[in-house]
């Protein structure tokens, strides 16, 4: 997955996010067939029902700076659609990285894993406290989840790590 296209409630284009980090790992070479998105592109954030969503995709989940730029842009929920390649320990990496991004950013992570041949599936929703509230399996499934913005804000209040940090993330271009 190289790009995420966001549309609004009327079907109009709301934004596009192109993966910045190409998957040149574990024997794959995306850079041989894809171009990365620009590292200095504005973060893609969308307001939905009073909650600000930030969008990244796939391999970018392995880079904490990608998620932090979204949080710096106001994201409270990180949405991560991915075709996460299957392989030894890959499902564990997916779950661990989604959980880490939630904890370190005190943000909800909605990690949507494509299911099927060659990918891990295993969509999950992780709360800002690191608790996995929903986790699906390797087969295609459909679930809905209600997010509570007040619970999110409560975690950020009790764990003000974003306010306490001493570094900012800027793109390396």
Indicate the topology:
Elements: E1 3-7, E2 13-18, E3 45-48, E4 51-55, H1 64-72, E5 77-82, H2 90-105, E6 108-113, E7 124-126, E8 132-135, H3 149-158, H4 161-164
Parallel strand pairs: 4-5, 5-6
Antiparallel strand pairs: 1-2, 3-4, 6-7, 7-8
Helix content: 10-25%
Beta content comes to: 15-25%
Q: Please identify the structural class as seen in this structure.
A: alpha/beta
The coarse silhouette is globular
Arithmetic mean pLDDT: 94
Q: Which series of helices and strands comes N to C? A: EEEEHEHEEEHH
Give the radius of gyration: 16 Å
Task: Give structural attributes.
about 170 residues; 6-stranded mixed beta sheet; two-stranded antiparallel sheet; 4 helices; globular
What does this structure look like?
The chain is α/β, with parallel strands linked by helices. The protein has four helices and eight strands; from the N terminus they run ββββαβαβββαα. It has helices at 64-72, 90-105, 149-158, 161-164, and strands at 3-7, 13-18, 45-48, 51-55, 77-82, 108-113, 124-126, 132-135. It starts with a strand and ends in a 9-residue tail after the last helix. The mean pLDDT is 94.
């Amino acid at each position: 997955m190289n790009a995420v296209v966001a549309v609004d409630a009327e079907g109009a284009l709301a934004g596009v996010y192109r993966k910045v980090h190409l998957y040149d790992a574990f024997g794959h070479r995306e850079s041989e067939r894809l171009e990365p998105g620009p590292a200095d592109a504005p973060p893609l954030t969308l307001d939905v029902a009073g909650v600000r969503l930030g969008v990244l995709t796939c391999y970018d989940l392995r880079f904490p700076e990608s998620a932090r730029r979204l949080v710096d842009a106001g994201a409270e929920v990180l949405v991560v659609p991915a075709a996460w390649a299957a392989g030894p320990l890959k499902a564990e990496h997916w779950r661990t990285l989604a959980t880490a991004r939630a904890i370190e950013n005190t943000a909800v992570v909605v990690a949507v894993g494509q299911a099927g041949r060659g990918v891990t599936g295993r969509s999950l929703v992780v709360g800002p406290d690191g608790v996995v509230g929903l986790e699906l399996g390797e087969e295609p499934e459909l679930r809905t989840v209600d997010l509570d913005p007040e619970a999110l804000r409560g975690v950020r209040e009790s764990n003000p790590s974003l306010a306490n940090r001493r570094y900012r993330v800027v793109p390396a271009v």
